[in-house]
Specification:
The structure holds three protein chains of three kinds. Chain B is an alpha/beta fold. Chain B has helices spanning about 55-60, 85-90, 110-120, 125-135, 155-165, 185-200, 210-220, 235-240, 245-255, 295, and strands at about 5-15, 25-40, 45, 70-75, 75-80, 90-95, 170-175, 205-210, 220-225, 230-235, 305, 310. Chain B has an eight-stranded mixed sheet, sandwiched between helices. In chain B, strands 2-1-4-5 form a four-stranded antiparallel sheet, with helices on one face. Chain B starts with a strand and ends in a 10-residue tail after the last strand. Chain C is built from twelve helices and two strands. In chain C, strands 1-2 form a two-stranded antiparallel ribbon. The chains are: A alpha/beta, B alpha/beta, C mainly alpha. Chains A and C meet through helix 4, helix 5, helix 8, helix 10 and helix 13 of A and helix 1, helix 6, helix 7, helix 8 and helix 9 of C.
Chain lengths: ~625, ~325, ~325
């Protein structure tokens, strides 16, 4: 709650809305106490007095009634009716929606058919029909507006409830012996309430407009009683001669509804957890670059080399150092594995290379990525774009989410080619079929016109690979390409990648968390922990004799098939959070041999044996053994 | 040996394309009629790939889904009432996704209290004592009790999930992919905790996973599921070392192993069978190198191979010892 | 495709049926009897009873419903006593005028709303985004009838760019240019609110889509940012924008009632309000059922458009 108010207060527009709304509500509350003229007493002698005339601050209307007094009493009425309608609609609608969404099945079906039926009316027809039946009057207008809005709430809340009712915690509550009624009240409702509040705060303004509208049509409040809508309705005939009688109530409605909408948006933003983390920000075409300090220069003619790469996430006032200075390189025909647990920074490293880290919140704060000696960090967008997918291509993890759901795989392949080459569509299509065949998709001529959802996971990932191969790239960066797949399918995909690399002399950077995969596919491997490389070297050397305690203990944790039932090794504790990295070695707190030297200064990645590097003051193996 | 859990011809059929009235458009057999027994104090591992029906089976076992046919017996008593509260005292469930199995708007204490209150009608003071006991058993600090789920890491949240299952005092736990959402270094912590708890409280486990190595490491016996049926069952150290069913063999050969060269265990591209349009005969035959005409006409049944080993195949692989 | 359209048309039958029941039940709730209202000061008990018999009001409700429904299916919506004219003729005349107004406004708000939403999302937090967000806020906060009145005051009375009200000039040719000059102000006033709502939803739909993985894939392929936004993102966002357009069409049709009152537009909305005030029940009943049925058909068109866009919808 406190958190919510703080977030709300930080939003200046919402705060403005709150202040205005507070003033209006206060005025409405104290109206009976103010020394105002009677709003309903007519005085035709003094009709249409201008604003700021004596005795009538805002003038008088066509019957000589004091506009200020009518305005305040009208506001009072409009607010009361609007809020009442919103509360009635929200309560009933939410109740219907929760019941339909929670029970599902036939209950849901029947209720939602009814709701659909009501929503098949343009809403005002329903409101007019209800008013026609009940007769004009403010109370009846309130009923009509509330009734018309119930289906909107019901449908909205039902959707949310269905999502929650299928969450595992609801199953857990059931297994804890709770009854349906109790689950609805204690498990579902608390999770739905924010949505109800959001829906209400964003529709109160609308309800006020609606009741005002019905009154404007003469179907709401009846003379002499006035709400803002009927004031406008009565003033309409004098619009041209005496516009002030229209402008006064109209402006009031505008002010109220605008304040409520601002406030409602603020409430929504403060309650919606997705907005809190800035997740609804639009990622820019390329990751932001704010490099401090000297930029490493290129050395040698390596195909792709990362030097001291640093990528951070800036979320509000926190800085997450996802990648804290990474050096990597690959040469043609080589496969480099980057292994680490979640949060180790391996994927962010991979995405930083081509500036694909979502930003905001991602920022590249240091280092360089040299492609054939040329630095890509901070390169102009057009330069990056021309290399993306052409020279350096990506394969991503979940092929269902990473392919566009509304285009055929053929169209997506054709687009990949045509982004870089002036192929006509026919030629590009032939090329697309060729690509599908090269990743061993059967019936490529037919499959080229399939949509991603019509394919199995393994097939989709083949399409992902075909897309990466589209322009015959030099480097492929594969970010956990088999993690979402079953083992039997994974085996097929891995052997395909391995064949392609040998046939085409591709350089592959393979991001994974699986030692088995690394062992089978990669020539060299880099182990990452808390945003840095802790060990790097030939795959065989590292898997046979890991030098860094983290590598050694992580490998011991992995159960391997064929060793039977046994106790597994574990690493105590958790990886550090990357916005509060300790000084010295990030692994020290979990390491059995950590000493004082491990917790001071910066521990460098140093040569260890002929081809390996390790970031440890007390490696597991002496250097000569590692050769 | 006492039989803790006995499943007889348990199956689940899901209607697809429901209509308001009248029969559904199609039926999907998620679990074919299936019989299994689990001895008290045993860990039975269940492996299978996505869509093999392992989660459906798990949800039936704990009463979250009513079975279409068949019975579940616990300690010799049939449980034919699909009331989760009744199930809850006898058999409990640990969820795959530890975070989403905890209500984000409740404190850990409120979550822990639910089974004690609703399954055992325990008074408040006794509840507090019991929670303290359980938390000590799963190595969680008591100060966690007044925090909310989002403050915990995956490993910690999974311990809380296990603690909740323990609070129900059921003797059988169904563990549905309990470590697949966790990193390896944390996975081992949770697996070892589970082993300790089993010893300490004399529990029986059904351990469901897609990870063969994990299943092998924790189970006494393993059942392999394919397309809703058990295709092979046997002692954990034998099933993958000497697979009898060609599918088990394919699984064992597909798992990436350090030191084994990379080869695709299946030459041609294979598609899984379509649940809406199940194949005649053996569901695996399209992918099977040993398939014969018999496999196309007649679905193999799970038959005894040797002591404690069963296999559902017309052409099981034999090994010379 | 034809199969899908047919399927949707068939599924509309129960909805239309339900609509007619709802309208009938609401109208049956009216206290007092229509005969008294129709006869006014001529309401002697004898007259009332006779008229009730003539109107079939002495029969049980279910029977009355089916008679009414049967008549409607034959195109007989009854007779309006206040206008002394067949309800259907009056509704058809008036609905044409409403269609011109609401149709124009709907096209305007769809195009402007989606374009504003996309630009706003693509330039998130930029100047264009802020300006659009503010305009949208103003648009959804102003009552359309008040906006209409202010437009009359400024553009018709003060500046004399457009006529004050009506659909056609009182004297002079009823040609297209006359229609456009009469249509501009009411169509704009009507479009403003819906434009705001559509722009808002398009913006958030675009922002939602722009963070999806397949957008990252498109960028990783080296697709131009322009194409990423207008081809990849907009197409995916349209999947959630199109249903909103369907709902907004209902809101435009609803808003037309106010605008017709303000601009003296001879549409079906004004007819309904007059009919309610005169308690001309048959006219209300007939008008509501007719317009609702048209709206149902429109929504089928929206569904068909959606299925053309999204291959995941089974046709």
């Amino acid at each position: 709650m406190k958190n919510f108010l703080m977030l709300l207060a930080r939003n200046r527009l919402a705060l403005g809305g709150l202040v205005v709304m507070g003033l209006v509500v206060l005025l409405a509350l104290v109206t009976p106490l103010l020394p105002l003229a009677d709003p309903d007493v007519t005085d035709t002698a003094n009709r249409f007095k201008r604003p700021f005339s004596e005795g009538a601050l805002l003038g008088t209307d066509h019957l000589g009634r004091d506009l200020l007094s009518r305005l305040l009493w009208g506001t009072r009425l409009s607010l009361a009716v609007g809020f009442a309608a919103a509360i009635i609609a929200a309560t009933l609608g939410a109740a219907i929606g929760i019941i339909a969404g929670y029970y599902g099945g036939r209950t849901d079906n029947i209720i939602m058919r009814g709701v659909d039926m009501l929503m098949a009316f343009p809403y005002i027809l329903l409101a007019l029909a209800i008013v026609a039946a009940l007769g004009p009057g403010l109370m009846n207008a309130l009923i009509a507006v509330a009734a018309v809005n119930i289906p909107f709430f019901a449908r909205n809340i039902r959707g949310i409830t269905v999502g929650i009712a299928h969450k595992e915690f609801v199953d857990a509550a059931r297994l804890s012996g709770m009854t349906d009624a109790r689950i609805i009240l204690t498990e579902v409702l608390p999770n739905v309430i924010p949505v109800i509040v959001i829906a209400m705060s964003t529709t109160i303004g609308w309800m006020i407009l609606e009741t005002a509208g019905l009154s404007f049509l003469g179907l709401g409040s009846q003379p002499p009683q006035a709400d803002l809508g009927s004031m406008l309705g009565e003033a309409r005939s004098a619009l041209i001669t005496n516009p002030h009688t229209s402008i006064v109530p109209g402006a009031m409605i505008l002010i109220i509804v605008m304040a409520i909408n601002l406030l409602g948006d603020g409430v929504r933003d403060a309650l919606d957890p997705r907005l809190k983390s800035g997740a609804l920000s639009r990622p820019m075409p390329a990751t932001m670059v704010q490099r401090a300090g000297p930029v490493p220069t290129s050395e040698g003619d390596t195909l792709l080399a990362l030097r001291g790469l640093k990528t951070q996430f800036h979320v509000e006032d926190r800085v997450y150092k996802a990648v804290g200075g990474v050096d990597l390189q690959v040469n043609p025909g080589e496969c480099l594995g980057v292994i680490g647990e979640s949060g180790s920074g391996k994927s962010v490293t991979a995405l930083s290379i081509m500036g694909l880290v979502a930003s905001p919140p991602g920022v590249i704060t240091g280092g360089a990525v040299h492609y054939k000696g040329e630095d890509l960090i901070g390169a102009p967008y057009e330069k990056l774009r021309s290399l993306r997918g052409d020279r350096i291509a990506y394969i991503f993890q979940d092929p269902l989410a990473t392919l566009h759901p509304l285009y055929t795989v053929g169209d997506q392949l054709i687009e990949a080619v045509r982004a870089h080459h002036l192929f006509d569509r026919k030629k590009a299509r032939a090329h697309a079929i060729e690509l599908l065949t090269s990743v061993r998709i059967p019936n490529a001529e037919q499959r080229v016109d399939s949509y991603p959802h019509e394919m199995s996971g393994g097939m989709r990932q083949r399409v992902g690979i075909a897309m990466a191969l589209a322009n015959d790239p030099e480097v492929i960066i594969a970010d956990e390409p088999t993690t979402a797949l079953d083992v039997t399918v994974q085996a097929q995909i891995l052997s395909l990648l391995d064949d392609l690399r040998r046939e085409r002399g591709l350089a592959i950077i393979f991001i994974t968390h699986d030692f088995g995969v690394v062992a089978q596919l990669c020539d060299r491997v880099a182990v990452m922990y808390a945003g840095r490389i802790v060990e790097e070297g030939p795959t065989k050397t590292i898997l046979d004799a890991p030098a860094h305690p983290y590598t050694a203990r992580l490998m011991a944790c992995v159960p391997e098939l064929g060793q039977g039932r046994r106790e597994l090794a574990a690493i105590p504790g958790l990886p550090p959070v990357v916005d509060r990295l300790p000084e010295g070695c990030a692994f020290a707190d979990r390491c059995h041999k950590a000493g004082d030297t491990c917790r001071q200064g910066n521990i460098e990645l140093v040569r260890h044996g002929a081809e390996s590097l390790v970031r440890c003051v007390a490696p597991e193996t002496p250097p000569q053994e590692a050769c | 040996m006492i039989t803790a859990l006995k499943l007889t011809e348990l199956s689940k059929v899901f209607p697809v394309g429901k209509r308001m009235f009248g029969p559904p458009r199609a039926l999907v057999r998620a679990v074919q009629p299936l019989s299994l027994t689990v001895e008290e104090g045993e860990t039975l591992g269940i492996v299978g790939e996505s869509g093999c029906g392992k989660s459906t089976l798990a949800r039936m076992l704990v009463g979250l889904l009513p079975p279409s046919t068949g019975t579940i017996e616990i300690n010799g008593e049939p449980l034919d009432n699909a009331d989760p509260a009744l199930f809850g005292r006898k058999i409990q469930y640990v969820f795959q996704d530890p975070i989403s199995s905890l209500n984000p708007r409740k404190t850990i204490r409120q979550i822990m209290e639910a089974p004690l209150k609703h399954l055992h009608d325990m008074p408040a003071a006794a509840r507090a004592d019991r929670i303290r006991e359980i938390f000590a058993a799963v190595n969680l600090r008591e100060e966690f009790l007044d925090r909310y789920p989002h403050e915990f890491s995956g490993g910690q949240a999974q311990r809380i999930g296990i603690a909740r299952a323990l609070a129900a005092e059921a003797r059988i736990l169904v563990l549905d992919e309990p470590v697949s959402a966790l990193d390896v270094s944390v996975q081992a912590q949770v697996l070892n905790l589970l082993a300790d708890l089993k010893e300490q409280f004399g529990l029986t486990y059904l351990f469901i996973s897609h990870d063969l190595a994990v299943v092998e490491a924790v189970s006494d016996r393993v059942a392999v599921l394919y397309f809703g049926s058990v295709v092979e069952v046997g002692p954990a150290d034998e099933v993958f070392a000497y697979p009898k069913h060609p599918y088990t063999k394919l699984l064992a050969n597909s798992a990436p192993v350090v030191g084994r060269p990379l080869t695709a265990p299946e030459g041609r591209e294979t598609e899984l069978p379509d649940p809406l349009n199940p194949p005649q005969g053996c569901a695996f035959r399209a992918r099977c190198a040993y398939a014969s005409d018999q496999c196309g006409s007649e679905a193999p049944r799970l038959e005894k191979w040797s002591d404690g080993v069963g296999v559902a195949c017309h052409h099981p692989i034999a090994y010379a010892f | 495709m034809t199969g899908y359209i047919l399927k949707r048309l068939v599924s509309a039958i129960p909805v239309l049926f339900g609509i007619s029941i709802i309208v009938f039940v609401i109208m049956a709730m009216i206290p007092g009897d229509p005969a008294t209202a129709i006869l006014g000061s001529y309401a002697t008990p004898d007259n009332v009873e006779k008229l009730n018999r003539d109107l079939g009001l002495d029969k049980p409700m279910v029977q009355r419903y089916f008679i009414w429904l049967g008549n409607m299916l034959q195109g007989d919506f009854g007779r309006s006593f206040s206008l002394n004219r067949a309800v259907l003729d009056e509704v058809l005349d008036r609905f044409g005028a409403t269609l011109v107004l609401a149709g124009t406004a709907f096209v305007l708000c769809s195009l402007l709303g989606v374009a504003a939403g996309v630009v706003s999302a693509a330039r998130q937090y930029g100047l264009a985004d802020k300006a659009i967000t503010f305009a949208v806020l103003l648009g959804i906060s102003i009552p359309s009838f008040f906006l209409g009145m202010m437009m009359i005051l400024i553009f018709a009375v003060k500046l004399r760019w457009f006529p004050v009200s009506g659909m056609w000039p009182i004297y002079g040719a009823r040609d297209l240019s006359a229609l456009i000059s009469h249509l501009t102000l009411p169509a704009l006033a009507l479009a403003v609110v819906a434009t705001g709502v559509i722009a808002r939803l398009s913006r958030s739909a675009m922002l939602e889509v722009l963070r999806q993985d397949f957008i990252r894939t498109a960028r990783a392929k080296g697709v131009h940012e322009r194409s990423v936004v207008w081809r990849h993102a907009l197409r995916a966002a349209m999947v959630s924008i199109i249903p909103v357009l369907g709902v907004q069409a209902g809101f435009v049709l609803s808003g037309a009632v106010y605008i017709e009152m303000v601009f003296q537009w001879p549409g079906v909305g004004r007819m309904l309000v007059d009919a309610i005030l005169k308690r001309d029940i048959l006219l209300v009943q007939g008008g509501v059922v007719f317009v609702a049925a048209c709206y149902v058909m429109f929504n089928i068109a929206v569904d068909v458009a959606q299925s053309l866009l999204d291959p995941r919808i089974k046709t």
